[in-house]
Amino acid sequence: MEVTSTLWVLTVVGLLALVSIDFFIGRKPHDVSIKEAGIWTVVWIALAVLFGLGLLVFGGGQPAGEFFAGYITEKSLSVDNLFVFVLIMAKFAVPSQYQQRVLLIGVLIALVLRAIFIAAGAAIIASFSWVFYIFGAFLIYTAWKLVQEARSDEEDEEFEENKLLKAAERRFGVADRYHGTKLWIEQNGKRVMTPMLVVMLAIGTTDVLFALDSIPAIFGLTQDPYIVFTANAFALMGLRQLYFLIGGLLRKLVHLSYGLSIILGFIGVKLVLHALHESGVHVPEISIPVSLGVICGVLIVTTITSLRASRKQAPKDRAEENRAEGTDKDSIDV
Which among 61, 139, 214, 236 could disulfide-bond with 268, CB atoms 3.0 to 4.6 Å apart, if both were Cys? Predict the structure, then answer.
């Protein structure tokens, strides 16, 4: 699809306007209710659907199909990211009324960093077609790692700060408590970061690691930088509300990693086939309708099997809790 510089500018301005409205509405720190999160989640999904339909009308079925496939893939990968966001919030003991502000700024940082990744990826692909082999192999390897982690009984119960974050804390220092929504304060005559700024940086920089698999994944569905950017933007900008909406349900998506591994492995194979085709090898290529069908099908099956497994596990967990309470009571009686 041919995208003019004017369309790029209008798109960026439109997205910034939506973010500004979102920020204005949520500017006052407060606990986000399920109703508020649900309404805004529906709004962001509806806006993404309208944008995709606009591509269908003005660009045709191919760009629209690529956008929807990319958006659904990025959205599903972002749900997996929410697990880490929960750990970050717990690590820094973020007060509930400030969590929405943390997520808003953190997601904006992530969006800027992803835009840089997308521009770099598009430039590399335009110059070196063999990079599809690397992207494909990396996604297949990532899919295998997801399966290995899902089969492991070990769970990451605490977020570990990355080196960049630790370096920033050493360089500027961190206040000992939250000061509302302030990012910097004067402490002992020195300007230091507040925990609010630290956790925002943690959210934003951690998303860069997530981009290492999500960006190659969407480039496996489309090589159009405009579609890659807009699909990522719509997926990320609804992430804050999704955090509050399904935060309590995350633990029930026990098969999500398996589903994501299938999707990433599938796209990895698609990339390798595309690279072979570009090299002149006669191999079948996977169309966007097939890709969209596989992605949606895997997510639906994964969700259904996860909820069933969670319902079966719930009575066992309650029984173990009851046994533990009985043991504690017996100890007290003795």
Answer: 139
Closest C-alpha to 255, from 70, 72, 79:
79
pTM: 0.76
Q: Helix (H, G, I), strand (E, B), or coil: what is residue 192? A: strand
What angle is formed at CA 236 by the lines to CA 168 and CA 273, rounded to 5 degrees? 105
In the structure encoding, which two tokens stand for residue 124, read together? 């590399």
Q: Count of alpha carbons within 13 Å of 111, Cβ hemisphere only?
A: 22
pLDDT digits over 115-157, tens only?
Answer: 888 888 888 887 777 888 888 888 888 888 878 877 765 555 5
> Nearest 10 degrees: CA dihedral of 126, 128, 132, 133?
180
Under 8 Å between Cβ of 165 and 202: yes
| Structure-derived torsion over alpha carbons of residues 166, 81, 10, 122, reported in degrees to the nearest 10 | 80
Q: Which has the closest alpha carbon to 269: 142, 136, 141?
A: 136
Residue-wise pLDDT for 184-225, tens only, equals: 888 877 888 888 888 888 887 777 777 777 788 888 888 899
Helix runs in 26-162, H state only: 34-59, 61-91, 99-127, 131-151
- Dihedral Cα 52, 53, 54, 59, nearest 10 deg: 80
